[in-house]
């Protein structure tokens, strides 16, 4: 974990004008510098870089941030890589205090190994590009698919010629283990079993080559398509230390800027769709790499945009793929994100649809894409007769694991209401069935019902004070978020609005950018508060005084969490008391809750009261 204090020190030494100026042509404009925004297309410059505040802001598309954020957004670097890049520029050593010397040595060795593999892959990519220029069959194939030389060059498309050992002329040693480790060469043992008897040959032969790039632009693998008939139609690189299919997306590096211009990402099924759509005016398309869409794919996409549109063929295979994409997307479907599903007629893929019916018709199809909420309901109701009690029950049973995967929030609760309506139930009854806590029409526990899960409690003054303090502590040290376990995350994210959204904002920020300083996080919270009309809460927290020197903020946060847990236990005990149920099960629950209350009270008595004001 990189200490937040180091990040602040680094940003104070870096000149953001110099950092941004390497990528954007800037001109002096008063005390600031101005240029064309690199994140969206514009003719008049609205992108401002402030040397006094050390920030950038675009008045056209709204992007803003510091030097670390700029490198992450513009180059696709991860947080740690961006920090290391800036630190190297100003001659600072990034502290790695949380890792042992052995762990640091292993990490350095892995990084060197990965860099070596990407060098090998980049050399092969250049070879394939050169071969395309002298491959008339390959050129004819690409022209036949309607691709221009310009778009082929943009995506680095190449050609692997016929022949079993074409790469032998490219690399000094064809028996170099790196060729096998990178997936470029296949090795088989011969009859003798020794090294000299091993047979080696190129993995890709007589195929159009699509280099797969990381978000930083490094070649990490290839997809190869046959020119004529043959199997497999597409052949991908095997997984290597630099290439994991379940994490990478074809075309994401090339689409980064277009994602901001279009406002959404279009996820399609093949390499050719991505390239063809880019040529036809849809440069915001990406594709999975021969695998089903994964949660990691979705998570990566939401680093670049808040709106994802999945495009599938309308046949049975497309519906199955949509089902897997739905499952991958559900955990990331927060109230501020858009996830939609586009189904084209079975006879079309995106490329053929645009060529036959035009870009405007395709844009209209994208606009009509099915929202995640409706896709969930339709998927659950498939093959269910909703005219019968049995069919409705089956639909609800199918929907429950999908609904459970959603993060808590307004969307999840509205989908619950929609499911209840389709299932012929009252929303409160379905909530009680699924959450295990029977709730009456007024939201109170029915007599005789044991206490289990509870809806997020109202933010009373006492609770609000504790939640304010938790937010303040995480603003001071955002790295504390990663030290919390899942139960603590759920406890904070399950609080009443607007606190649930505030803690969700901190989680997204930490995941996307790593630990940020107080001012950067306050800026993000203020944006969130503006949408929720909860500005006074953030303003109140911002006025808390700085921590005392030597204060143990981790212990302070642990105490706050114990206080919130105690309130939950006391609520459950009160609900048990009000139920009037004297069954053995409820008596056992009561005893367990009282033991937990005594334990938490003991912890809170032992610990000194923290001060956040």
Summarize the structure.
This protein is of the alpha+beta class and 613 residues long.
Q: Give the overall form.
A: globular
| Average pLDDT, all residues | 83
Number of helices: 26
Radius of gyration: 28 Å
| Separation, N- and C-terminal Cα atoms | 27 Å
- The amount of helix comes to 40-55%
Largest sheet: 5 strands, antiparallel
Number of strands: 16
The side-by-side strand order for the widest beta sheet comes to 1-2-3-4-5
Task: Give me the secondary-structure category.
Answer: alpha+beta
Give the DSSP E fraction (strand runs of 2 or more residues): 5-15%
* Regions with little confidence, pLDDT below 50 for 5+ residues: 437-461
Walk me through this protein's architecture.
The protein starts with a helix and ends in a 7-residue tail after the last helix. The chain is 51% helix and 11% strand. It has 613 residues and is α+β, with helices and mostly antiparallel strands. The relative contact order is 0.06. Mean pLDDT is 83; it is low at 437-461.
List keywords for this structure.
five-stranded antiparallel sheet, about 625 residues, alpha+beta, five-stranded mixed sheet, 26 helices, globular
List the helices and strands and how they pair.
Blueprint: H1 4-13, H2 16-21, E1 27-29, E2 32-35, E3 47-50, E4 55-58, E5 64-65, H3 67-75, H4 79-90, H5 101-133, H6 136-144, H7 149-154, E6 158-160, H8 177-181, E7 185-188, E8 199-202, E9 207-213, E10 219-226, E11 234-236, H9 252-262, E12 265-268, H10 271-279, E13 285-287, H11 295-301, E14 307-313, H12 316-329, E15 338-344, H13 350-357, H14 359-367, E16 370-371, H15 372-381, H16 389-405, H17 410-422, H18 427-435, H19 461-476, H20 480-483, H21 486-493, H22 499-513, H23 518-532, H24 535-542, H25 553-579, H26 584-606
Parallel strand pairs: 12-13, 12-14, 14-15
Antiparallel strand pairs: 1-2, 2-3, 3-4, 4-5, 6-9, 7-8, 9-10, 10-11, 15-16
């Amino acid at each position: 974990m990189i200490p937040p204090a180091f990040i602040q020190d680094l940003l104070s030494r870096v000149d953001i004008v110099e950092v941004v100026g390497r990528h954007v042509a800037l001109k002096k404009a008063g005390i600031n510098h101005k240029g064309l925004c690199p994140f969206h297309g514009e003719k008049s410059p609205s992108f401002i870089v402030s040397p006094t505040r050390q920030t950038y802001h675009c008045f056209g598309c709204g992007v803003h941030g510091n030097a670390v954020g700029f490198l992450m957004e513009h180059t696709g670097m991860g947080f740690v890589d961006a920090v290391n890049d800036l630190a190297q520029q100003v001659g600072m050593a990034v502290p790695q205090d949380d890792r042992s010397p052995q762990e640091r040595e292993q990490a350095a060795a892995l990084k060197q190994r990965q860099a070596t593999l990407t060098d090998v892959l980049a050399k092969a990519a250049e070879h394939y590009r050169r071969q395309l220029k002298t491959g008339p069959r390959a050129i004819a194939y690409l022209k036949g698919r309607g691709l221009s030389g310009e778009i082929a060059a943009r995506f680095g498309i190449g050609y692997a010629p016929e022949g079993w050992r074409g790469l032998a002329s490219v690399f000094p040693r064809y028996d170099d283990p790196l060729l096998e480790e990178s997936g470029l060469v296949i090795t088989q043992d011969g009859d003798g079993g020794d090294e000299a008897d091993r047979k080696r040959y190129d993995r890709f032969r007589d195929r159009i080559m699509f280099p797969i790039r990381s978000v930083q632009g490094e070649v990490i693998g290839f997809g190869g398509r046959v020119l004529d008939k043959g199997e497999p139609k597409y052949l991908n690189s095997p997984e290597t230390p630099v290439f994991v299919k379940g994490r990478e997306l074809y075309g994401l590096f090339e689409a980064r800027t277009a994602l901001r211009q279009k406002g959404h990402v279009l996820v399609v099924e093949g390499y050719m769709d991505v390239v063809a759509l880019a040529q036809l005016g849809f440069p915001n398309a990406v594709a999975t790499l021969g695998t089903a869409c994964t949660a990691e794919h979705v998570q990566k996409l939401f680093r670049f945009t808040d709106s994802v549109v999945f495009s599938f063929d309308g046949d049975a295979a497309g519906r199955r793929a949509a089902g897997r994409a739905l499952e991958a997307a559900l955990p990331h479907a927060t109230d501020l994100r858009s996830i939609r599903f586009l189904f084209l007629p079975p006879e079309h893929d995106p490329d053929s649809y645009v060529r036959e019916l035009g870009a405007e018709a395709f844009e209209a199809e994208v606009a009509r894409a099915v929202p995640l909420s409706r896709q969930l309901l339709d998927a659950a109701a498939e093959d269910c007769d909703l005219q019968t009690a049995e069919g409705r029950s089956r639909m609800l049973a199918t929907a429950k694991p999908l609904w459970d995967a959603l993060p808590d929030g307004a969307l999840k609760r509205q989908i619950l209401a929609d499911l209840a309506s389709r299932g012929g139930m009252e929303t409160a009854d379905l909530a009680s069935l699924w959450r295990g806590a029977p709730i009456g029409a007024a939201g109170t526990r029915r007599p005789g019902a044991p206490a289990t899960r509870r809806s997020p409690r109202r933010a009373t003054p006492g609770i609000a004070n504790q939640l304010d303090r938790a937010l303040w502590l995480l603003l001071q040290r955002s790295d504390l978020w990663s030290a919390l376990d899942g139960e603590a995350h759920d406890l904070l994210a399950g609080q009443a609005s607007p606190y649930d959204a505030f803690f969700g904002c901190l989680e997204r920020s930490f995941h996307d950018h790593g630990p940020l300083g107080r001012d950067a996080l306050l800026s993000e919270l203020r944006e969130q508060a503006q949408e929720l009309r909860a500005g006074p809460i953030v303003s109140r927290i911002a006025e808390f005084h700085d921590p005392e020197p030597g204060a143990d903020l981790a212990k302070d946060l642990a105490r706050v969490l114990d206080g919130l847990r105690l309130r939950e236990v006391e609520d459950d005990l009160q609900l048990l008391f009000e139920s009037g149920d004297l069954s053995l099960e409820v008596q056992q629950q009561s005893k367990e809750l009282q033991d937990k209350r005594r334990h938490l009270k003991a912890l809170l008595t032992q610990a000194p009261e923290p001060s956040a004001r």
